Amino acid sequence: MKLPRYLLALAAVALSASALAAVQPEAGIGLPRDVSLNGHLSDWLTNVTHVFNIILFTIMCVWMGIACFKHGRAHEAEYDLGDDKRSIKIALMLSAVIFVVVDGNLFVNAIHDLSTAYWNFDEVNANPGTVRIEINAHQWAWDGRYAGKDGKFNTEDDVVVWNDFKVPVDTPVYFQLASTDVIHSLYLPNFRAKMDAVPGQVNHLWVQAKEQGEFEIGCAQHCGTHHYKMKGLLTVLSKEDYARWLAEASVNGQRAFDTSDAAAHWGWDWKQY
Amino acid sequence: MGDVVRYRPPRPREETTAAMGMVLFLGSWAMLFAALFLAYGFARMRLTSWPPAGVAALPWKLPLGNTLVLGLSSWSYQRAVREVQMARAARAWPWVAVAMALGITFVGLQVVLWRSVGRSMEPGAAGAYSSVFYGLTWLHAAHAAVGILGLGYVLARAVAGAYSGARHLSLRLWGMYWHFVGAVWALMFVTIFVL
Amino acid sequence: MDTSTVARSPHVHDEPTSFMRKWLFSTDHKVIAKQFLWTGLVFLALGGTLAMMIRWQWAFPGEKVPVLGMFLERAGGMITPATYQSIFTMHGLIMIFWAITPILIGCFGNYTIPLQIGAQDMAFPVLNMMSFWTFIISALLIVASFFVQLGTAAAGWTTYAPLSTNVGTPGLGQTLVVAAIFVTGVATIMGGINYVTTVIRLRAPGMTWMRMPLSVWGLWLTAILNVLFVPVLGSAGLLLLLDRAFGTQFFIAGAAGVKGGGDPILFQHLFWIFGHPEVYILILPAWGMISDIIPMFSRKPAYWYAGTVWAMVAVTVLSAVVYGHHMFLTGMNPLLGKGFMTFTLIISVPAEVLFLNWLHTMWKGSNRFPTPMLFAVGTVFVFGLGGLTGLYLGTIATDIYLHDTMWVVGHFHLTMAAAAFLGSFAGLYYWFPKMFGRQYNETLGKVHFWGSVTFITLVFVGQLIVGFSGQQRRLYDPYQYTYLQHLLTANRLTSYAAFLLALFQVPFVVNFLRSVFAGAPAAQNPWEATTIEWTHAASPPPHYNYNPIPTIVRGPHELANPEVKKLTGRDWAGQAEELPAGAVPAAAKGA
Q1: Which residue of C has its CA nearest to B22?
Q2: C-alpha closest to that of C30 among C94, C125, C152
Q3: Pairing of strands A232-237, A164-168
Q4: Do B130 and C261 touch (CB under 8 A)?
Q5: Domain containing residue B163
C-alpha cells in the first residue's frame, strides 16, 4: 500500500522531532534502556549470574536458617570433625561443581563476549562505514573530533564538538580516548560501554546504536570537583540526517579553522592497534 | 696458631628470634625496592627511547666507583664479624670503622653525582628518566644513611668491648642490614647506569 | 622447646609500676591492644560521621546539614562539591587505615596472638609499643590535614594519579594525607614483623601449627600480607610524594608531562598490588575469629579445620595475582586482563570452602546465640551476600557496565566493611570478659546486633540497586544525569537506613562504656571455651599471661566428643587439659 506523500512527510517530521526530543528519563529501578547492538550480551550474562546467585544465596540462608532454628540449644551437637576422606571429597566436589558451573559459565561467556564483541576491533576496523571519533577528555568536559572528508584528523575539515556527539544508527562508532590532565572514563550507560581516558595513552572503545534518540554520556572516574557534572550527549541520528549534519558541520569547521590556534589542534593521527 | 677452628656457639633462642625479625624487616624493604624497580621497568618500557631524545645519558664511572666503595665496606664489615667469631673481638672495631668511613664516602660521592647530573638535569626535567634516577638514588641514600648510624652504634659497642664470640647479636643484625643496602645498590647500578 | 617452668621469658619486661610505663608507653601486648582499640573506635566514629554526610547529600542534595553543618560554616552549612570530594576520600581512608586496621589487627592481633599460642608477650615488645606510637603520629597527620586551607585529601581513597598529584589536587592537605598513609604503613609493618615472628617462635610446647586456633591463623596470614605488600603501598606513596614535593614525574603525563612524562597507570599497579591483598588483610582476621567463635557456640568442632587453614592460605597466596581486576578498563592488554579474570574467578573457590565449613559447623550443632555468635553468623550472612556480588565484577564482560558504579561500592562495603565491622564486634563481645574482666549487657548487645545487621544489609543493598541502575561512584549530585533522576527515592531510603544504622551504634557505645568501667565482674571462662586464654588465664590475665606456660595436648575445638563427656561430664575439653591417658586421643583428628 503506498502511503500518500504528505503522510510520509508528516512521518519524517515526527520521527526527526522524536529524535530531537530530550533524553528520556528511565522508567524505574534496574538496568537503563539498552539501545546498543551488543549490550544484550552483558545483560544476559548479568541475568544468568543473578539466577546462580539467588540459588546459592537461598541455599546458604536455608541451611543457616534450619541450623539456627532446628539445631538450637536443645539439640545435641554431633561430633563431626569433617576431616574424614568422604567428607573432604564431598566438600571438594561441591566446590568444584560450583566453580565449574558458575565461574566456568562466567569465564566462557566473558571470553566470548570480549573476543567477538566488546574488545573485537577487527570488524570495526575493516568496515568502511565506521564512524571514527577522537575524544579528548579533560576537566570537566568531553571534546570530540571527527576527521571530515579527508579522513585525516587534526586537519582543516575536522568537525570539533564539545559535549555533543552525533552518530548514525546501525553503524559502528569507534572512539579513541585521550586525556590531557587526569584520568576520566567515558561511560555510555545505554550502550553498556565504558573505557578510561588516561593521560599519556590512547584507549579505544566501540559501540553501535540500534535506535535513534538522545542518550547521556557520563564520566565514570573521579576526576576532580566537577566530576559529577561531566556529562555529555550522544545523539543517534538516521544515516541520512547524520551525513547531512556532518557535511554542514565540516564546512563550519573549515570556516572556523584557525591555523595559529595550537590548543585547538589537539587531535592525533588515528592510532593503529 | 691456636684459633684454627671458627667459634660457632649454639645460638640462644632470642637471637634466632631477633634474626628472624630482621629478615622479615629486610623482606619488607626488599618489597619496597622491588616495587621501585617495577616502577623503573614500567617507566622504561613505555618510552621508545631511553634516555628520551635530547637528554644526556647518565654517567657510569662515578657510580661504578661507588659500587666498589660499598662492596669494600661490606667486605670490611665481614672482617670485623670474623674477628669476633675467631675470639679476637678487640681487633674488630677498626674494621667496623673502615666500613663506616666507606659508607660515609659512598653518601658523599652520591652527593657529588647528584650535583654533577643536576647541572644538566633537574628532577622533573626529563620526565620519567630523571625521576627514576633521582627517586631511586635518593631513597637508597636515605637507607644508607640509616645504615651508617647503625654502624656508628656497632662501632661504639665494639670499642666498648661489648662483643664476644658468644654474644654479638647487634653486630650480626646490622651486618645483615648493611649488606642489604650494598646489594640493592649493586642491582641499582646495573639496571640504572649500565643497562 | 622451652621447659614450662621458666617464670618469665627474657624478652618480657617486668611488670611496670609508673603510670607512664603502665598505660602510656606500655610494652604489654594487652595494653597496646586496648590503646589500638580506643583509638580505632574514635576514628570509626569519625569515619562513620563522614559517611552520614555523604548519605545526607544524596538524600537532600544541596540542603544544610543538620548538626554537622557547623563544620561547614564557610559554605553556609552546606556541602559543596569540593568539600564532598574530601568527605568521601577521608571516609574511605579513615575507615580502612585508622578504624578497621587498628581494631581488627592492632587490637585483636595484639591481644589474642600471645594469649592463644601460650606466650607471655610478643616477640618484640618494644617494637610493639613503637608501632602504636608511630600509628598515633599518622593519626595526628590525618587530623592535621583537615585544618589545611585548601582542604584535606580529595582524590578518593584510591588516590589515583594524576588527580592525586599537584596537577589534580594541589595543596598541603593531600600531601599530609599521603605522608600519613606512609607512616601508618610503617606502623603496620612493625606490627606485622612482630606477629609473624611471635607465631613462628613463641608457641607453647605442644602447640603445633595445626592445633592453633583459627583466629591466630587468620591474624598470622594477615601479618604476612602486611609485611610483604604494605611496602608496595609505601613505594607508591613515596613516589607520589616525590612527584608532589620534588618535581619528579613518576605519575604525571598528559599536558604536564615532560619528555614523555610518567605513567598514571603505574600508580594503579603499585596501588593495587598492595590494594588487593589489603582487602584480604582486612577480612582474614575476621574469618579466623568467626571460625573459632562459631564452633564455641555450636558446641561442635570446626568442620574440616585443615580445609579452613588451607583455604585461608590459598587466598593469601592468590591475593597478589588478582589485583588487575581493579584495572580492567584502563586499556590494559586484553590477554593480561583475561589472566587476571581467571585468577579472580579461581580465588572464589577457597572462599566457597570457608562457607561450606562454617555452615557445616553450625549444622547439627547445639547452637546458642549470645551476642558474639549473633555477630559471627551475621558476618557469614553479609559476607555471603557481598561475595556473590563480586562475581559480576571479576567477569570483564559484566564489569564493563558495573565498573566504578555504586555496585562496586555496595560489593566492597558488604564484604570488606560490613564483614570486618561485624567480625570486629563478634570478637569484641566475645573477648570482652577476658579483656576487661567485666560482663557487658547482653540485651543491649542483641539490640546493637539486630539494628546493625538489618540496616547494614539495607544500606548496602540500596547501593547495589542504584549501582545496578547505572549510578556512578563519587558523584556530588547524581541527579544531574537525567538517567539517574529517578533514583532520588532509592537513595533517600538508603540514607534513612544509614542514619538508623548510626543510631543503633548508640546501644554499643552505652554498653561498652558502662561495662568497661562498671560492669559486673566476669568469670574466667563464661563461654566454656576451649582455647587456653579462657582455660588458663584469669579475666583479665595478669601481666605475664601464664605462669607456668601450659602444655598443649589437643586441637582448639574439642567439643561434643562423647568420650570427653564420659570423662568430665562436660561437652568440652580445653586445649591444655590433661585427661587420663589412653581414654581420649590426646590430639584432635588431623592435628
Answers
A1: C193
A2: C125
A3: parallel
A4: no
A5: 65-194
pLDDT at B12: 81
Tell me the C-alpha distance between C469 and A215, whole Å.
Answer: 15
Domain CATH for B103: 1.20.120.80
Asked if residue B54 belongs to a domain, the reply is: no
- Tens digit of each residue's pLDDT (9 = 90 or more) over A205-243: 999 999 999 999 999 999 999 999 999 999 999 999 999
Distances (CA, A) of B179 to A152, B72, B144, C271: 58, 11, 10, 29
Got the DSSP string for B23-92? HHHHHHHHHHHHHHHHHHHHHHHHSSSSSPTT-PPPP-HHHHHHHHHHHHHHHHHHHHHHHHHTT-GGGT
* pLDDT band per the 50, 70, 90 thresholds, residue B118: confident
Looking at the complex, report in whole angstroms how far the Cα of residue B18 sits from the nearest Cα belonging to chain C.
Answer: 8
Q: Could you count the other beta carbons within 10 Å of the beta carbon of residue C306? A: 17
DSSP state of A38: S
In-domain check, residue B44: no
Q: Is residue B101 part of a domain?
A: yes
Closest CA to B128 of B47, B35, B19, B73: B47
Looking at the complex, does the CB of residue A22 fall below 8 Å from at least one CB of chain C?
A: yes
> Which residue of chain C comes nearest to A97, CA vs CA?
C349
Burial label for C20, CB within 10 Å (0-12, 13-18, 19+), is: exposed
In the block, cell 587534526 appears at A154
Low-confidence ranges of chain C (pLDDT < 50): 1-6, 586-591
Pick the CATH number of A124-258 from 1.10.3470.10, 3.20.20.110, 2.40.50.140, 2.60.40.420: 2.60.40.420
Q: Which chain C residues have a beta carbon less than 8 Å from that of A92? A: 353
Nearest residue in C to A178, CA atom:
C254
Q: Specify the number of domains making up chain B.
A: 1
The residues, ordered by sequence, that sit 6+ positions from C462 with a Cβ below 8 Å of its Cβ are C410, C490, C491, C493, C494, C497
Q: Is the pLDDT of residue B52 over 90?
A: no
All residues of chain C having their beta carbon less than 8 Å from the beta carbon of residue A57 are: 384-385, 388
Residue pair C268/A45 in contact by the 8 Å Cβ criterion: no
Q: Which residues contact A145 (CB under 8 A, 6 or more apart)?
A: A133, A134, A135, A136, A153, A154, A158, A159, A160, A161, A266, A267
pLDDT band for position B56 (cuts 50, 70, 90): confident
ipTM for the predicted complex comes to 0.91
Question: Who wins on pLDDT, B1 or B160?
Answer: B160
Q: Which residue has the higher pLDDT, B1 or C558?
A: C558
Q: How far apart are CA B156 and CA B162, in angstroms?
A: 9
Least confident window among B6-10, B61-65, B191-195, C73-77: B6-10
Compute φ and ψ for C559, nearest 5 degrees.
-130, 150
Q: For residue B33, is it within any domain?
A: no
**Cα–Cα distances in Å, from C68 out to B49, C20, C46, C495, C506?**
54, 36, 12, 16, 18
How many CB atoms within 10 Å of residue C471? 25
Residues 6+ apart with CB under 8 A from B183: none
User: 3-state DSSP call for residue C257?
Assistant: coil
C391–A77 CB contact, under 8 Å: no
Which residues of chain A, if any, have pLDDT below 50? Answer: 1, 3, 9, 12, 14, 16-20
Topology given in CATH for the domain delimited by C29-568? Cytochrome C Oxidase; Chain A (1.20.210)
The DSSP line for A71-119 is SBTTSPPP---S-SHHHHHHHHHHHHHHIIIIIHHHHHHHHHHIIIIIT
Cβ neighbours of A179 in C, within 8 Å: 254
Name the grid cell of B9: 656457639
Whether this model's pTM surpasses 0.90: yes
- Extents of the domains making up chain A: 39-70+82-118, 124-258
Report the pLDDT value the prediction gives residue A17, as an integer from 0 to 100.
46
DSSP category for residue B179: H
Q: How many H helices and E strands in chain B? A: 5, 0
